[in-house]
Amino acid sequence: CKDLPSFTCKEIAQHCTFEQRIWVTYKGCVYDITDFVDLHPGGDKILMAAGGPLEPFWEMYAVHSNPEVLCILKKYHIGYLDVDEAAMSSGVSSDPYACDPPRHPVLIVNSSKPFNAETPAEILTASYFTPNAFFYKRNHLPVPDIDPEAYRLEVRGEGIPTPVFLSLEELKKKFPKQEVVATLQCAGNRRKEMTHVRPVKGLNWNIGALGNARWGGVWLRDVLLYAGFQEDDTQVKHVQFEGRDQDVTGSAYGSSIPLHKAVAEKNDVLLAYEMNGDELPRDHGFPIRVVVPGVVGARSVKWLHRIVLSREESRSHWQRNDYKGFSPSVDWTNVDFSKAPAIQELPVQSAITEPAEGAQVLADDGDLVVRGYAWSGGGREVVRVDVSLDGGCTWNVAQLEPPYVSEDDRNAQQTEEGRAWAWKLWTLQAPLPAEGGKLEIVCKAVDSSYNVQPESFEPIWNLRGVLSNAWHHVHITVLP
Ligand code: HEM
Ligand code: MTE
Ligand code: MO
User: Fold this and answer.
1) Is 140 noted as a catalytic residue in this protein?
2) Rounded CA gap, 454 and 451, in Å?
3) Residue to mutate (ligand 2; options 139, 247, 257; most atoms within 8 A of CB)
4) Which helix (H) or strand (E) element contains residue 72?
5) 99 flagged as catalytic
6) Residue 89: what pLDDT?
């Protein structure tokens, strides 16, 4: 079947409805699986792959790694994936986003240029590690196209005798490989719910602007010491990061973290070149990104270009004039960004991923299963999740799932106190009321410092819609 046609990602993405017919791709081939959908043993979950690759779903549902599945797939082969399309389109277009990588169509897109998309709730807690293709993507600018051969990481500034330049290969060779399991969360996760109080400025993220991954790379600490930084230095107060992504004025995305955060061994700050065992994907910062565990996603700079040790915080817009919290009394007429500290550690957070808002279930379907995630900043472990089925009048304690992890993952998991960087998934199973009715499901998490989530958004409303962590509510109907 070598003479079958080739299709671009864009064409394939349009085939995601029964009218257009359902296409998927797998290992460079295109399949029209419309006639298989009703026969699929896993039900209509298969439709999540419509218009895009099967790989990330099959990574998650291992039942598919069996020859019988490939045999079925073969029957629906209709063509090939055009591999050169990205290169071709970049040559004829002046669109700064023309070189952005292809993305999985299941992502919920908040803005396409720059690309910002979150993981659908029902996928978010299907696995402890968020597959890279489904991991939320938060880009402020076009994705830079970096040649790994030519790449150099620069380390300079106060306390560094002479600037040091490291190639990707040197980074991998000179420093031992380290791994850390950490959840990244955007400051704006759950902003959408805050907008119900009053409008805010920002992308309308629902509950999926976070994800959990096993990151592989080298300790930032090791690289700073190699570059000549002395631990008894008293001048340096901040470590600034600059990305390779630039706006039209040529200024790069940047941020900084306090020095102690960057160099203390227990903080596990990583310069990552791997994500869940794969090379760091372009959307997530190829070839090198910072991963600052327990800290707001904005500080984990992608496409890392330069590290600058300094007496002051990064002068980047995103450090000084954004990603800060304010009182509900502050609006755009009186906000003074110099008056609030930059967000670093995030507050305790949790949300319900299943059932979905507005779901209808049958009373005799068996038990209700509520699932969700919980996480706190600063390495504080989530010690409990409370779930209410009656809008917050009475509460049940959810079961925290022990993370299913391999030997490698266990090694990457920092287990000492104060190093709980990864989320916890949780479940609550409860009998459904036989008489039916409406249920208001609510969740709230408690961390190891006994921090709890606030009950409502009114008192934490802020003009940028950040730090949005009030109790999460989901309404369902039980049909008798
Ligand atoms: C189960 C085929 C796509 C989710 C299965 C099984 C087959 C199959 C043969 C039964 C495996 C066994 O029990 O031994 C396929 C084919 C697909 C496809 C040919 C693509 C053309 C997907 C996608 C998803 C999915 C995209 C998820 C988004 C599942 C699930 C089950 C399953 C959850 C397990 C059902 C159970 O609980 O028994 N699939 N599948 N499948 N599939 Fe797929
Ligand atoms: N780094 C660069 N260079 N450019 C960016 O736009 N976005 C930041 C951070 N690092 C960003 C960046 C923000 S706000 C978040 S939440 C995380 O990256 C998102 O990481 P992800 O896209 O890998 O999920
Ligand atoms: Mo973010």
Assistant:
1) no
2) 9
3) 139
4) helix 67-74
5) no
6) 40
Residue nearest to atom 38 of ligand 1 (CA): 42
Mean pLDDT of 80-85: 77
Pocket lining for ligand 2, CB < 6 angstroms: 135-141, 184, 186, 243, 245, 253, 284, 297-298, 300-303
Quickly state the pLDDT bin for 66 (edges 50, 70, 90): confident
- Decide if 323 is catalytic: yes
Query: Which stretches within 227-302 are classed as H helix?
Result: 259-263
CATH number of 6-81: 3.10.120.10
Euclidean distance between CA atoms 299 and 80, whole angstroms: 40
Cα→Cα distances 8→5, 31, 92, 95, Å: 10, 13, 16, 18
Candidates 195, 60, 68, 199; CA nearest to 123 is 60
Q: What is the CA(121)–ligand 1 centre distance, in A?
A: 19
Check residue 84 and report its DSSP letter: T
Q: Cα separation of 416 and 293, whole Å?
A: 14
CATH among 3.30.420.10, 2.60.40.650, 2.40.50.140, 2.60.40.1940 for 349-479: 2.60.40.650
Termini Cα distance of the chain: 53
Rounded CA gap, 40 and 30, in Å? 18
Q: What is the 3-state secondary structure (H, E, C) of 98-121?
A: CCCCCCCCCCEEEECCCCEEECCH
